[in-house]
Amino acid sequence: MGHIQDRWYRPAQDSETGKPLLNAQGKPVLEKTELFGKGLRYKVRYLDPVGNERSKSFPDKKKRLAEDFMHKVEDEKNRGSYLDPKAGKVVLREYAQRWVASQSFEESTRELTAYRMRLHIYPHLGDKFLDGITASDVREWDRKLQDKGLAASYREVLFAHLQSVLNAAVDDEKIRKNPCNAASVRKPKAEARKIIPWTAERVHAVHEAMAERYKVTVLLGAGLGLRQGEVFGLAVDDVDFDGGEVHVQRQVKLVGNKPCFAPPKRNKTRDVPLPDSVGKALVDHMAQFPPLSVTLPWKHPGGELVTARLLVYSRERTQAWRPVFNQWTWAPALKKAGVERVPRVDGFHALRHFYASTLLDAGETVAALASYLGHADPGFTLRTYTHLMPSSKERTRRAVDGVFGPGRGDLPAAA
C-alpha cells in the first residue's frame, strides 16, 4: 500500500523520552523540516506492479489530490490496468522512428512512410511527449494540413500513420488511449472518385504516339493489366507463348532512389491470360529489341543480385526508370495524342483501368478480374469497378420473359 510523505512537516518528539508530542486534542504536534517551503509538499510513494518504487509530488494545500492519486494507483494495480506515469514521457519523433524501423514493410514503403512523417507529422507533433498529445492537437494538426492545401486522400494516409504509431504506444503501455480515436476527432476521408476508363480510341492514339521501343508498354498495360513496375520487370522467361499465359513475378522499383527487382505489390505473383494480339506484338517487339539481361539487387540496394532478360529497357540498355519514363516518354506521348493530362487520372495506371473495364464489359467475373489484376481482395476490385459493370436490367427482363413469356403459361396472380 502506498503512503503520503509530508516533506514540510514531521511529528515532533519529546527530547527526553523520544515519544511523539501531542496537543490538547490528542493529535501529533508538527514541526517544520529542513525542507519547509522548498519544492512540492506532498510526495506519494508506492510500489509499481513489478516492485519498483515510484513517486509523485503535489503542492501545498493539495493533500486531497495526493490521496486521490494514491487510491487511484492502488485501484489500477488491483485491476491490472496500472500505467507508469513516466512511460509516456517519450517524444513522438523518437518513438515513431523506432516504430517505422520495427515494421515489416518493404524497404521502399518504409522509406516513403518515414519521409511523409518527417515532412508532415514531426514539424507539428514530433516534439510533444506521447502522453501530452491530445485530441485537440490532432484536430489542429489536420486543420493545418488542410490549410496547406493537402488533398483529403493524402491527409487520410498521414492520419493513418499517426494513428498506427499511437496505437502501438497504447499496446506498449506508453499511453492509455489513442487521441486519434477520440469521438471529437474526424478522420480525413477522400470522396469516392469514380474511375472513368479511357476509350479504345485514346489507347490506340497513345500507342501510336509512343516512341517505337516503348509502344509495347501500352499493350502490356491495356492488354494484360500490368502495373508500370511490372511492365519494366517483365522478362522473356515469364511469357508462355505456347500456353497463352504471362507469369507476373517481378517488378522494377526504386528504393532509396536506386533501382531494384522486387515481387509484385503485396508479394502477389499471378498468371494472366495472354491474348493472341498481345503475344504477336511481343514477338514483333523482341525481333526489333531483343531481350536484355539486366542484373539488379532483390528488394533493396543491398539485396541478392538477380538477373532477368527484360523485354522493356532504355536506350542506354539499362532497366527502365519510372521518373524518366514518365517525364520523357509518357508525358510527350499524351501530348502528341492530344490528351489533356489530368494529374492522378491519366498516368500509366489508366491503362490498367482500361483493361479492367474491357474485361467487365465482356462479362468476366469480378473474382477472375481480381486474380488477373493481382488484388488481394475481390471486394476491393468490386468496390473500385462496380460502376463499370454492365447493367443487369436487360438480363433480368430476358430471364423473367423466358419463364413467363408467350407459351410459358400465365403470370401468377398477385398476392
TrEMBL record:
Record domain Tyr recombinase: where: 193-401
Limits of the Core-binding (CB) domain: 90-170
Region: Disordered, residue numbers: 1-23
A GO biological-process term: DNA recombination
Keywords from the named record: DNA integration, DNA recombination, DNA-binding
Pfam families found in the cross-reference section: Phage_int_SAM_3, Phage_integrase
GO molecular function list: DNA binding
InterPro entries linked: CB, DNA_brk_join_enz, Integrase-like_cat_sf, Integrase_catalytic, Integrase_recombinase_N, Integrase_SAM-like_N, Tyrosine_recombinase_XerCD
Keyword Plastid included in the entry's annotation: no
Top-level taxonomic group: Bacteria
Family stated for the protein in its record: Belongs to the 'phage' integrase family.
Protein name from the UniProt record: Site-specific integrase
Organism, scientific name: Prauserella cavernicola
